[in-house]
Amino acid sequence: MIENLPPRIEKELQDYFSKNKIPEEKQKEIRKKVEELYRKSVYEPEEAIGVVTAQSLSEPATQMTMRTYHFAGTAGIQVTLGLPRLLEIFDAKKEPETPMMIVYAKPEYQSPEKIKKLAERIKEVRLREIAVSTEVDISELSVKCKLDLQKMRELEIDPKELPKLLKLRNAEIEVRRDFVIARSKKEDMLSLYRLKSNLLDHHIKGIKGVTQAVVVKEGEEWVIHTLGSNLRKVMEIEGVDPTRTVSNNIFEIQDVLGIEAARNAILKQTQYTMEEQGLFVDVRYIMLLADLMTVSGKIRAIGRYGVAGQKASVLVRASFEETKKHLINAAAKGEIDLMKGTIENIMTNQVIPIGTGAFELVGDIPEKKKSA
Questions:
Q1: Are 317 and 308 in contact (CB under 8 A)?
Q2: Where would you tag: which of 11, 102, 306, 311 has the fewest CB atoms within 10 A of its CB?
Q3: b/e map of 7-35 (b: 16 or more CB within 10 Å)?
Q4: For the chain, what is the mean pLDDT?
Q5: Cα dist. 4→46, 125, 144, 208 in Å?
Q6: In a domain, 183, yes or no
Q7: How many CB atoms within 10 Å of residue 163?
């Protein structure tokens, strides 16, 4: 029997008993079951939890498919999942291959019309999306775009505001009724066609980089899935619930919400990626890895430029990658390996400091007296 459960579990038990008015006999049964589960979850002193964690995460990962994309919503937003996504997380990639956000709206915006308007305010609009046709006038060194006024009204874009929005280097912008005319200041064909490309790709409205915004109903709630991410900007938009809106860019989460939020993002996104493939790993292994990646206050990759490459032991660093480099650098700096870890002791055929090998006991054990 366990003498005392941790205070947090004890409090949750007492709250559950009082809330549901559980009889005393039933309380004993529940407590016994909780104690049994807790006892099974406690590891032995000096157990090699790092090795167990590595094995518990790596073995299911070998069963993951190389399927790269998953379609979110009816419009088909492609999101990287499977093994490529897991590598993005553990390698601490600065920019995901397919950055995305899940944007939650406040209760007052939970109607099809309002959520659609909210999605339109989030999605980036470029000039090419409101242009019907484009002409290049070589004699005048100008580019002429015919505008779709009806679409501009739907997107709440005022044609009078276009000259302020369209600021291009080496070009003069003029708006005449439903036409935008850009005249090049340079008299060569290359600059003219470059002007055409820059004009059509110019940002008009919405959040830069968010190329798609799809409205999806999840249960009883309307949610917006985006392709492209800018968490800071989207949280500033009226109607967005900033307490639940998330991005799959872990570094962006760190910049906006801090290292603890980034640690939770690593945890949740690893869980989701594995469960989506039908693989289930104990959350505590993922928690240990997320803690290891963020314990320094910054996000570190698992590989040679992160956790593995910054180990205190010279032999551990050398055993991972770039053996000669680590040994030469350590010799030049006069580094000392204290041999306190597992790998370096295995390499030198010493007793590893885990399990029973973690203890150094010296005792004078008396001989057992022989019976007459």
A1: yes
A2: 11
A3: eeeeeebeeebeeeeeeeeeeeeeeeebb
A4: 84
A5: 22, 60, 79, 55
A6: yes
A7: 13
* The two structure tokens encoding residue 91: 């390698």
Average pLDDT over every residue of 63-67? 68
Q: Is the dihedral of CA 153, 155, 161, 162 positive or negative?
A: negative
Label residue 72 by pLDDT band (50, 70, 90): low
Q: Within a domain: residue 107?
A: no
b/e code 79-111 from CB counts within 10 Å (16+ = b): bbbbbbbbebbbebeeebebbbbbbbbeeebee
pLDDT tens-place string over residues 17-40: 998 888 888 988 998 899 888 888
CA distance 275 to 267: 12
> In sequence order, which residues have a C-beta less than 8 Å from that of residue 36 and are 6 or more positions away?
none
- CATH number assigned to the domain comprising residue 64: 1.10.1790
CATH for 343: 1.10.150.390
Report the number of distinct structural domains present in the chain: 4
What residues contact 2, with CB distance under 8 A and at least 6 apart?
A: 35, 38, 39
Token pair of 299, please? 């996000």
Helix or strand run (H / E) with residue 131: strand 131-137
Q: How far is it, in rounded angstroms, from Cα 317 to Cα 324?
A: 10
**What's the rounded Cα separation, in Å, for the pair 206 and 154?**
14
Residues in Cβ contact with 91 at an 8 Å cutoff, skipping those fewer than 6 apart: 301, 302, 303
What DSSP designation does 358 have? G
* pLDDT of amino acid 234: 92
Residue in the structure block whose two tokens are 């600059």:
191
Q: How far apart are CA 31 and CA 4, in angstroms?
A: 11
Q: Which domain holds residue 180?
A: 125-205
- Does the residue 106 lie in any domain? no
Q: Which of 173, 171, 175, 174 is nearest to 195 (CA)?
A: 171
Lowest mean pLDDT among 99-108, 111-120, 361-370: 361-370
Q: What is the pLDDT of residue 105?
A: 92
Residue length of the chain = 372
Task: Give residue 74's pLDDT band: very low, low, confident or very high (50, 70, 90).
Answer: very low
Structure tokens at 215: 């409205």
